Amino acid sequence: MTNEQTILIVDDEAAIRDMIGIALDTAGYSSMTAETALEAHVNIVDRRPDLVLLDWMLPGGSGIELARRLKREELTADIPIIMLTAKTSEDNKVQGLDVGVDDYVTKPFSPRELVARIKAVLRRSTGNLRDKPIRVFDLELDPASHRVTLNERAVDMGPTEYRLLNFFMTHPEKVFSRDHIQDQVWGANVYLEERTVDVHIGRLRKALTSASGPGINYAGLIQTVRGAGYRFSTRAD
Amino acid sequence: MTNEQTILIVDDEAAIRDMIGIALDTAGYSSMTAETALEAHVNIVDRRPDLVLLDWMLPGGSGIELARRLKREELTADIPIIMLTAKTSEDNKVQGLDVGVDDYVTKPFSPRELVARIKAVLRRSTGNLRDKPIRVFDLELDPASHRVTLNERAVDMGPTEYRLLNFFMTHPEKVFSRDHIQDQVWGANVYLEERTVDVHIGRLRKALTSASGPGINYAGLIQTVRGAGYRFSTRAD
DNA sequence: CTAAAATGTCATGAAAATGTAATATTTCAT
DNA sequence: ATGAAATATTACATTTTCATGACATTTTAG
């Protein structure tokens, strides 16, 4: 399964991390862990997990801090967060949800419950936002099937080109610098040569070109903006 | 680049300060240094650097102290901090870093990695505040898409002409000398022949002319003020 | 384990952009 | 009107930025 989703577990207790890790593994998710808010933040920015399980009671009360921060920054705002807490107090819930946290699980919890919540949150966020196919003229990208079609015919491209196209189609009519594209498509702090982005842009264009019929060439949707970056646009260059 | 960003290096070892300073210089940043937490704090408040590189191992363990303080005080809370740590996470110590630091780099690090992380953090903190489109009659400049349109049709121009027009449209009805225009569009500390501005004004006018329809010529918005400079104005010359 | 696919880097050539100097044109005081 | 000063325009050499094919390496699928 190429489409395995990754979940970051943030908790300072090793026992809890392990327990959750096993539960997730059983449920078919891959997981990574962090002990501190800082470590978590770096991991999130670098690796872009599909969901974050965040302990409310991190040393220094930094759990909420982190949540707030993640939701504030554009790069990470769309990554769903589930808070884990020992307390059941209403205050906490209100405060946590106020920050923009997607759900809330109180310790102790059963692995089954946790997985159910995760599924629900993932369905909700991937479901609503990302699951609907995006269509531009006859070009359609369907996240559910992870497939790109042009005039109902499949367009052949590599995973990176898919992510690139997905990013572009969800952010149309805006320029992005190569750096920004790297952040979004590869994850921040992945050291690539600047030109690498160009190469993948080229591959994506090529894929679109060879899938385009004799009419318009869909590669034209991906426009080079000299000195600034690239842009996905339906309007003439 | 119009505004060069300044980075404060806080480390008690001169060798490290120098090494980092050179790396930053090469990458196009200007830098300043501080040896102690106190000196650093004064510098930060006075000069407001765009980012702080902070050694965790400052004498007296005051590095974390400083970070915590900076993030607590409103005046400095939005200045990004990257921590430099000697070794990989020893739990209790690293927990001290959970104070809102933006990233950390473990020594020894490659200049390349450091610069990449700096870029990423700066992009995260400063980026994404995009301006709204500016419109004058049927001429529109949209910073988000980095595009100039006239009657909905794209106007073709080079990067410099774009910056020039952007400057003019954000500062209408005012005369600017060639010197001033150079500072704003090319950046200070760039020396050009005076006439170079004229040439680019010419190119911008030409771009606007060939995009203007048979009606009014939008090049007329850029007016020559003999003996003084140029002005962008919607009123007749 | 092997073959195919994907990935990232580099080298090269093409295209666009840039700054300067030379030349042409306009403006204004006289 | 006339000449000097200021500005506009053109041409061109140089620099910067991009596109693309080739290649070595890594990852994935079977």
Could you please describe the fold and organization of this structure?
Two copies of one chain form a homodimer. Chain A has helices at residues 14-26, 37-47, 62-72, 90-99, 111-130, 159-170, 178-186, 194-211, and strands at 6-10, 30-34, 51-55, 81-85, 103-106, 134-136, 139-142, 147-150, 153-154, 175-176, 222-225, 229-232. Chain A folds into two domains: 6-130, Response regulator (Rossmann fold, 3-Layer(aba) Sandwich); 134-232, Orthogonal Bundle (Arc Repressor Mutant, subunit A). In chain A, α1 (14-26) crosses α5, α6 crosses α8 (194-211) and α7 packs across α8 (194-211). The first copy, chain A, is of the alpha/beta class. Chain A has eight helices and twelve strands. The first copy, chain A, has a five-stranded parallel beta sheet with strand order 2-1-3-4-5, with helices on both faces. The longest helix of chain A is centred in the middle third of the chain and has 20 residues, at 111-130. Chain A binds a DNA duplex (30 and 30 nucleotides) through α8.
